[in-house]
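Q: What does the assembled structure look like for these inputs?
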Amino acid sequence: MGPMQVPAHFEYERATSVDHALALLAKWGSEARVVAGGHSLIPMMKLRLARPEALVDINDLEELAYVRLDGDVLAVGAMTRHADLLASPLVGEHYPIFHDAERVIADPVVRNRGTVGGSLCQADPSEDLSAAFAAVDAAAVVRGPDGVRRVPVREFHTGPYETVVAPGELLVEVVVPVRPGGGSAYEKVERRVGDWAVAAAGAAVWLAGDTIADAGIGLTAVGAAHFHAPAAEEFLRGSAATDSVLVEAGRIAAERCEPVADQRGPADYKKHLAGELTVRALRRAVARARGVA
Amino acid sequence: MTTVEQPPIGFGRMHRKEDARFVRGRGTYVDDVNLPGMLHGAVLRSPFAHARIVSIDTAAAQAHPRVKAVITGQTLDGLKLAWMPTLSQDTQAVLATDKVRFQGQEVAFVVAEDRYAARDALELIDVEYEPLPAVVDARRALDPGAPVIRDDKDGQTDNHIFDWGAGDEAATDAVFASAEVVVAQDVLYPRVHPAPLETCGAVADFDAVTGKLTMWCNTQAPHAHRTVYALVAGLPEHKIRVISPDVGGGFGNKVPIYPGYVCAVVGSIVTGKPVKWMEDRSENLMSTGFARDFHMRGEVAATRDGKIRALRVKVIADHGAFNGTAQPTKFPAGFFHVFTGSYDMEAAHCAVTGVYTNKAPGGVAYACSFRITEAAYLVERMVDVLAYELEMDPAELRMKNLLRPEQFPYPSPTGWEYDSGDYPRALQLALDMAGYAELRAEQAARPPGGPLMGIGISFFTEAVGAGPRKHMDILGLGMADGAELRVHPTGKAVLRISVQSQGQGHETTYAQIVAEELGIPPDDVEVVHGDTDQTPFGLGTYGSRSTPVSGAATAVVARKVRERARQVASAMLEVDPGDLEWEKGRWYVRGDQSQGRTIQEIALASHSSLELPEGVEGHLDATTVYNPPNLTFPFGAYVCVVDVDPGTGQVKVRRFVAVDDCGVRINPMIVEGQVHGGLADGIGMALMELIAFDEDGNCLGASFMDYLLPTAMECPSWELGETVTPSPHHPIGAKGVGESATVGSPAAVVNAVLDALKPYGVRHADMPLTPAHVWRAIQGRPIRTDLAIT
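A:
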């Protein structure tokens, strides 16, 4: 029953290991696309907005599906499904920002299939995990024919739907250092459950007493370069964790956004949300750092 | 909400008979129809809202190895099929010949061996367009110098379609001239789409040997479609069979005949093979029957203490590029003139102007009861605007103005006769269920600047069940519906009806009506519908007309069977028919209840060698045509409670209390299910659903990423109540209910949001109240929601 939008012709290969995936990517060249959960790419192909010549399916790469603590680094495999990130107690303990974000990413059906790596590589400006990883200053681990390289998530995206991952390369892992005294949170406004963000903000703070020792702010869908608000972070570092300071950080974050009007909202509203949601995320992050939320 | 395990012999809760196949995935929808040798069609659509077609080159598409035919407007022109009549006596291009007039308009049709090849071949068709300026803003469609969209029509020099009015203009103006208080408000009911889960589609199978066309099509009106095909295509009507199989939602979207259906027929004739055409989601949203798009200005005249005296409304109705709305001929604005709603007033008048724009055609759909949705929303918004200005409680203001029970049957100022109602009782019940006083106290206790709460009320009156035929027809076909009831020798029955279910549960409720009338189990009644070769003529299911019309026909035909049974029973019992009494399922001799015959015994006897009295034909079968004497007027009182975050503009519906009075309920479970769906629709329209257009006429709601439907997460646990005021003229006292909640609920949600925004001095804001729009309303800079956000 119902409507079937049909993609153009494409070749399909199923990778059995990371090495095999890299070999397939080398074989098909720049016209190949990696398909993970497929919840962004496949709809785009059905609408014929994307027309890869070949798909390299990496869904069998169980080796990339994990969430673990490697010493003081939280490591998330690129094939970790959204649902698994949401279900991970380890993530909840160290970075509740990801549970906040995952709760408002799409719906359970999409979260069961969609992946962390796929979200980052899709690089949709409205995608939530990019801002969350930017807020906590994570690094992306990319493998290619010449070996492994690490790229800070804050430098990972080069524009809408564009990343530093080159043809022939594969994002394999995202790593986040775990530091004491931290709290994090994510706040999002959507028109309806499962819709893309009208705007969203993620915040991470590390407190030394009542002083903000370090802070990270990520912004979604508001035209913030690299999903990131460095000026507001800079303002927070060394400031007292008072509400007026958080409000000022929100103002600074919003001021530097350049949102674009669309049917989700006009630019002034999105700019307002950038500030409002930054403040709200900071408040929760501070409360969590203090152990009171 | 329990369902008894033993189905009732008649009315009452029982599981839907059709669900056994639906929950097993064994329904048969149009896309499940696969015929030997079947080909697949795909439509090439215009990327422009308004453009002249310079040339169409199909050579490359025709050369595709799996393509069997490419059809253009030129092909159809040769068959005199390039244009077809609409249900509003306008014309619509099947495939564009001269110009394209909306984005998504049909330009060419490819028939290929499979869906993929058909879709691939669309990209091989080269169309050269010369873009023209588009008419997007309905309010400026009649501006001097506006591009003329319908230059195909002789004498058409502007974008005007019709002017239509109802009520007494002079009397209304006189009341306004003497009124203590007059308030006016511009109110937009934006363009929305019914978005049934199953999109429109057809399988056309023309048999060149027999000359018979079999058309599987998920239409809500199979008989009307058959007649229109006969009139338009010149095919003899008895050689056309329309089969509407299981239908995955209609909501008015599946009433019209769409170009794709005609193309499928032509494709089948041309190729000699069956041709399937199924829309994809974007095609459905972009090109098929939308709903509303009413730009209204309401004015209410009242006394200072809140007695409404008159209502005056002016409307610009955006019908898109072709006037294709489906509604009774006499009423180009549908039943909008029921806009005085549930209130007593001295006078009322409306003036509606229909205009062409470069948008998809339509207007009457989405459970609107022929524009009553717009009417109910307008009046319920105006009552709240009046309450705002008079600083009165909106519940109190409504109570003061509601029609009183003793006023029924009530002749309305715009020409309706409301059949029955007890409005104050329904409103009081809703207020009591909601705990209205406590809610107001909670609201009053809210500190300023913080989270907001709002309480919204709406009271609606519907007018459903079109005809009677003397007032109502579509393309000259009177709105009366047939029913046939056949009783087999063993007492099992087959009911054949003209209306077509799209999810309403007809196979259950109609069986229950027969069960109620004949006293046999509903499971003993097979309901046949949706096949024009197997069912009597009728106009179909929309405007909540099935129960008021075909439900009545079913009761009437069952009573005819019962009377025939009385004759047979009298022969069996050797008594005068006048000496027999009926009890459910059985005729017995008056004064001696032990002397009787069950309907099953009588059925067998009616087919047996029993000698029947002079004039009694034998068998119990009967037919009828039901021409309703009037519409039925269901009503209801809704209370919605919302929480609003003023910092983000987000709205959360906390509670929704719905008291519905649809007269006698045949299956309360099905009624509640329909109310649930309609309430969700109301939340959708009030808060998120929208088809807007940018300045070039690009459709901004062409996928489910852009056109947002509500989910369970946006819906509270519904709190339902009921009162029962039977319709005095309907055989079983029932009124239609399929659209009640869709009609009544949007106003309750919007009124609740605006009630919450009152501290910010916001009196009105248009739907949909998305977070952005709510926030902008608080800022005093509302968004024009029908246009692109810039």
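The interface with chain B takes residues 1-6, 8-9, 47, 107, 189, 191-196, 198, 261-266, 269, 272-273, 276-277, 280 of chain A (CB under 8 Å).
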